[in-house]
Amino acid sequence: MTTEPSPYWLRDNCPCAGCRDPRNGQKLFRITDLPDDLAIAAGAELDGHLEVLWSDGHRSRYPLPWLAGETGEAGDDGRTEAGKRLWEAADFADGLPEARWEAYLADPAERAAVLTAVRRDGFAVLRGVPAEERQVLAVAGTFGHVRVTNYGELFDVRIEPDPNNLAFTSAAISPHTDNPYRDPVPTLQLLHCLENSATGGDSGLVDGFRAAALLRAEAPEHFAVLTRTPVPFVFRDRGTELRADRPLIDVDPLGRIREVRFNNRSIATLRAPAAELDAFYAAYRAFAAITLRPALQLDFRLDPGDCLIFDNVRLMHARTAFAQDGRRHLQGCYADLDSLASTLAVLERRSAALDELAALFEGEGAGEYLGEAVTMAEHMLQAGALAEAAGAAPHLVAAALLHDVGHFRGTLHGRDLMAGQDNRHSDTGADWLARWFGPEVTGPVRLHVAAKRYLCAVEPAYRAGLSEASEYTLRVQGGPMSEQEAAAFADHPGAADAVAVRRWDEQAKAADARTPDFAHFRPLLASLMG
């Protein structure tokens, strides 16, 4: 390290189990718990880590890539313009970000791609969502929770006999964001098309961040006015009265665009000195004019089964007027970006974990498997395939596939079982897999060696069928169970699953057997990851 880091920053980020809950990373101490004279007593780099002894006796260990900023959390929460791709309509000349509903549900990678588009571009369209009542709630449930408002858990966008909102008429609606009179405002909106046979009624989107960025570039004085002027947004009907005073353009402490609230229908009377009102309305008109530029307006038509998901604090949505010569019926609901971002982060974390497992199968998995005629990867893939062919439950297929992951050295640092030392690979592997999988998967992995010892004790024919290498490792691992041990194992609630995995384990040593590759099992593993 070229410079010594701030001691309080470094200690505040100590990753040890005494400072952070290993399950969720939450800190277990207050910043005021640290001594006033905190200092680094000693520090040294060892095995890719910085090891620190603190003046109060505490010890910390930090990965060097983390200290260098190569890993860990980004410097932006993804909500500001820094984490977005600002766009104009021409950027989607080749098509909108979209996916088929069936693929979105079945494939975690497809779901991640859709959620990434919403986070990066502000929107995505799901095609083929059943054109049935309340399906929009099912879409929202795939990544978050519905925000219930005075409109209910969902709302119908169609002509109403006594509308409390212009959206429930056939009139054209100019680009706007919804619910600016709430604080906090719903940050996501979903619109699911059930019917659209009317002439007109096309949908439109404008990137409000792009419009705001253009205003900043073309008229910085107008941009400054709109970021510092609180505007009263109001909604009222017979049963509701809502108000929020917020700027049209909100920026974070670094000046980055973070939120746009723009709805001409909901702006109430702004009270201020005449000079300030003149400045505001000049800026407001300039911003509004930018949002109406044809280059910024992305127009498309929602057909039955299409569900649009979009960022309601960034994108402005619009609608052309439509004739009452047909029916136009959309159902909508509100949700929030934090749940979407959480779901996406978990999907990405799971994908990274599966990539790590795949790398083990492709790398170290090509190595010799305990003197057998197959590699480690071939053995484990065969075990997974045997479980799958037997119609086993998904968690057992996963356990069979991953049962010997504890033998991999690069990540798990196992010792050489064939050298006469028990590397306790069942425990090592189960502990490592527990970062991603529940006990239904890790339990059989943890017990599969015990299951071998059990079977050798209660089924002489099973032991007679062991390979020479397996007989050797049996002795290293403790030999057949005693009668008392076998009885205790048989009473274990996970014994049956462990025995099933063990039988597939023993069968999975056929040279040149045709088996699926690791990619075949990825969707199954992803579905089991917690």
For this entry, give a set of tags.
single chain; 530 residues; alpha+beta; NE0471 N-terminal domain-like; Double-stranded beta-helix; Hypothetical protein af1432; 6-stranded mixed beta sheet; 4-stranded antiparallel beta sheet; 19 helices; 17 strands; 38% helix; 16% strand; globular
Structure write-up:
- With 530 residues, the chain is of the alpha+beta class.
- It has a six-stranded mixed beta sheet with strand order 4-5-15-8-17-6.
- The radius of gyration is 30 Å and the shape is globular.
- The mean pLDDT is 92.
Chart the SSEs and their pairings.
Elements: H1 7-12, E1 40-46, E2 49-54, E3 59-63, H2 64-67, E4 98-100, H3 101-106, H4 108-121, E5 123-127, H5 135-141, E6 155-157, E7 173-176, E8 188-196, E9 203-207, H6 208-218, H7 220-228, E10 231-236, E11 241-246, E12 249-251, E13 257-260, H8 274-291, E14 298-300, E15 307-311, E16 315-319, E17 328-335, H9 337-362, H10 376-389, H11 394-402, H12 409-412, H13 425-433, H14 439-458, H15 460-464, H16 468-476, H17 483-490, H18 495-507, H19 518-528
Parallel strand pairs: 4-5
Antiparallel strand pairs: 1-2, 2-3, 5-15, 6-17, 7-16, 8-15, 8-17, 9-14, 9-16, 10-11, 12-13
Helix pairs in contact: 4-9, 6-7, 6-8, 7-8, 9-19, 10-11, 10-18, 11-14, 11-18, 13-14, 14-17, 14-18
